[in-house]
Structures are given as C-alpha cells and as structure tokens.
Amino acid sequence: MDPQEQDDGTPTNGATRRIDMDAIFAQRHREPRAPKLAVIWPWQSPFVYTRCMESMLHLQHPAGYETDVFRGSGWSPALRHLHGCEQAYSWGADYFVILGADQLYEPDLLCRLVARLESGFEAVACMLPTRGFLAWNHGMKPFGKVAWRFKASSEGMQALARQYHGQAVDPDMLEIIDPADGDMQRCHFVGSGVLVFRREHLEAIKKPWFY
Amino acid sequence: MDTRFSWRLQWEAGATLWVDTSITVKHLHIFAIDDTFSERFADWAVPHPGVDLDICQYLPTAMPHSTVADEAPQPAPHATLPSSFFERYRAEYATMPYSEHQKVYAIIERYYPGQCHYDAKAIVVFLDGLCAAGVVPAVLELGGWKGELAKEMLARFPDIIVWHNIEICQEAVAKSVCADTRYHPKTLPDFFWRYRPLPGPVNTLVLSHVVEHMRAEDFSRVLAHVATLGIQHIYLDIPHITETSEKAWQGWTNTHVLEVGWKRLEEILTAYGYSPVSSDGAQRTYASAQGVATLAEERCHAVCEVVDATV
C-alpha cells in the first residue's frame, strides 16, 4: 500500500499537529551527521533469553545510520519502556526501535524497518505470535498474531460512528489484522514487540510516554 | 500499556501506524513460537469424532479430586465456570445445534443448580391485574428452570388453570421443585420456535430472565410462534439492558447474548401486535389488541363501580 495515500479516517483531536515527516527526513539527511537509530530492549532481570541475545547480536546495522542499543530497566513494563526511550532520547536518537527481549529476529530486521521509514511509512510495527491464548481477544487463535484496527464503517471506521470504550466493552468495533491482506497494513492498536517510530513522535506525546 | 502507546502515536503525534506483516518474529517461551503455531491449533475447537462434547469435562475445577472420572464429574463446592466457557458459548451461539445448547445448560445446571431469577412482587402485580380483569391465566413460561416461579405463583393464584414450563435444560426439568398438578414442565426436542404442537390453550406468556439469553432474531421467532397460540398477555423481565443498549456481554459469566435494548424489542413486539401495558424498569408487560380491550373493559367496570358507589 502507498503510505502517501489519503488517510482512511484516523480520528484527529483537532489540536493534533500533522508532522511533515518527508521534510524532516530530507532535512535530517542533509545534516552532516548520520541519523541516529536507537534500539531499545526493555528488560529488568539480570538473566536473559540466550537465543534472543544471539539474535540481537546478529542484527545488521543499517548503512548510513549510527546505531546504538539501550536497555530499559525498572520495576514495571511501562517504566522499562520509559527508561529505554529516555536514554535514547538523551543520546539524540532520531529513530526509536523497541524490540522485545523474549523474541527472535531475522538479521535484516533493522534494515527492513529503516527501509520502510525511508519509503515514507511514519511508524511501523510487526505482528508476532502470542504466547498462548488470550480469551478476551476476539477472533484470535491460540498463538495467533495480534494487531487490531477499527472495522470499516460508512463513516470511515467504527470509531467515528460510535465511541470506543476498550476491547472489554466494544470488541465488535475491532478486527484483528490478517497478514494475508497485504505486507503493509494500517493499524490502530499493536503491542511494542517490534515498533519503530520517530523522535518527533515522542516529542509530540505528553509525558509519561508509557503508562 | 504498549497498545495505548501505539494509539497515542496516532492520536497525539498524528502518526499513521502500519504493521509490516512480511517481517517474521518468533516469540520465545521454553520453545520459540513461530507463525505455524496458530495453524497447529486450527482445529482446536473441533472435537474428536465420538468424543464427549461436554466442553468442561477436562476443567480442573470439574475434577477436584481425581483426573479420572467414570461419570460426569461433579464440580467442587463453590466451583464456577470460567469466563472462557461463556465467551465460547457467545461466540458459537448462532451456529450451535439445539443439542449443543442443551449440553451447555446441562453443564450450567451442575455448576449453578439454583436459579431463582424472578421478581415475585412484579409478577404478582401482573397476575393480579389479569385476574382482576376477569382473565383466567393459562400460563406458558419459557425457561422456567426447575419451576421455582411456577411453584410460588401457583400457590398464590388458585385462578391459574395451567402453567406450562418449556425449559431447554433436561436436568432442570428432571429436578422440578413444583409438585402442583397444574404445573407441566417439558423439554422440547428442538428450538421452541421450530416445534409443534405447542401446549395449549394458553393466554399468558411469562419470560423472566430469559430474553437476555437469546438474540433479538430468536426473540422475534418466539413471538412469531406464540402469536399463533392466542397469547394475549406477555410479561417480560429482562435485566441489565437499557432502551438502546447494544451489549456484547464480554466478560460476563453467564449466557447472556441479547444484543439489543428495549426499544428494538418493543419494535418486535409491536410488529406482532403487542402493545405496552405497564413498564417498571426491567419488568414490562404487553398485551395484544384483544388483551388490551379486556384490560380496558375491566378498568371501565372498576370506574363505573366507583361512580355507582359514590352516587
């Protein structure tokens, strides 16, 4: 799908500013320094999944980018995400990639994500298999991949026709994204197992970024 | 936390969020979970041919003392069914054959044997009104469980000539608590709206805490069916819905599936010729044109008697 195509109806809250990512991207690449790509892995325990570490060590760093890795620690998942992002932000990261510390990655993951950013996709996530079965996720198979979007409606999407109160109350408004529908698909809710976004996004989000 | 962040990326930062489904990621557990796992369990909801379809037979709560049971296991005291049981029921409600619905209620009867969901005060007012209007109630109750309501009302109203209870749960019918000779519990071999002949003659339909266990389409089928029986008076007691509610009931540990509110139900009632007579929150009564005329005539007599007495 063409990332530049007309938005399909994502609600805006009026005050939301549209960030001209193309202009920012062009400016960034005119600067003498290479853009900075921060890889954040939230993890508190002193013990890690060995296979995950091997996988992360084999990740190829995208050419033309300065890449560094930050571990987010803290007593809660939100705090670990916050800590990792704050370190990366202080380092001056232009792009933030959050990678779960209990996953296995293809070596070219970072390069492919960056390629997506360069082709105009603003924020990109991946769908990964769930560990088990979450009964409250409608339509989900055991070990199924999960990412959700609002179902389409005559007004653009369900959220415009009706107030969404969360999955527990309005599960009928969401649908799980089917990978068979295409390589790049619009998404409204996804976890942070693999999630890449830009510095300007963090700056636009009121703190705390994660809670 | 993280899904909220993904929404804030869009809502607060104005980003468009995408998923790249071409990238493969494995999730680590003791083993690495890859894309094939969900397909390995593609038939997880399909029982093995010939297996006992009691979906709760393997629940730990169903077998507190043993992992081997010769008979249908009895739940431990205070054991409850998990919400997943009811979520699955809701998900499969429309496609389950009648026999499967019966099995679900058989399980429910084991875990929740006592079901006294009725407002005795409200239904006494309803039946009092009928008797005062000269109606001799011949009652058809759907989903009357073990006859708790019938027992109480038959003891109170000698004018009731018959009380049929059509109950989907065979076990509940077998454990009837009402010994009144006017009480006739029965389990049908198919959905009520598909079954003939129906008990008759009856003139009063009682649905207490029943309609929320059926979809609006089925409620419509019930009315289409009872309209042929000459039902003149209908008593409804439907909890937890509002005029316009559109509940999904997710997380509710019961078999509620009704997806519409009172407004839509009254449209259905109107379509089958039933008008509202009284409304008191969850308890509402309706009558056919003939029923309304009967009640109005009684009111007229009552007013005349008052006037005569005054004069």
Descriptive overview:
The complex is a heterodimer of chains A (211) and B (311). By secondary structure, chain A is of the alpha/beta class. Chain A has 2 domains: 1-126 and 191-211, no CATH class; 129-190, no CATH class. Chain A has helices spanning 21-30, 50-57, 77-91, 109-118, 158-161, 199-204; strands at residues 36-42, 66-72, 95-99, 103-105, 123-125, 148-150, 174-176, 184-186, 194-198. Chain A is globular and about 50 Å long. Mean pLDDT of chain A is 84; it is low at 2-17. The longest helix of chain B has 22 residues, at 289-310. In chain B, strands 6-5-4-7-8-10-9 form a 7-stranded mixed sheet, with helices on both faces. With 311 residues, chain B is of the alpha/beta class. In chain B, strand 7, helix 8 and strand 8 form a beta-alpha-beta unit. Chain B is elongated. The interface between A and B is large, with 81 and 46 residues. Strand 8 of chain A pairs antiparallel with strand 1 of chain B, so a sheet runs across the interface.
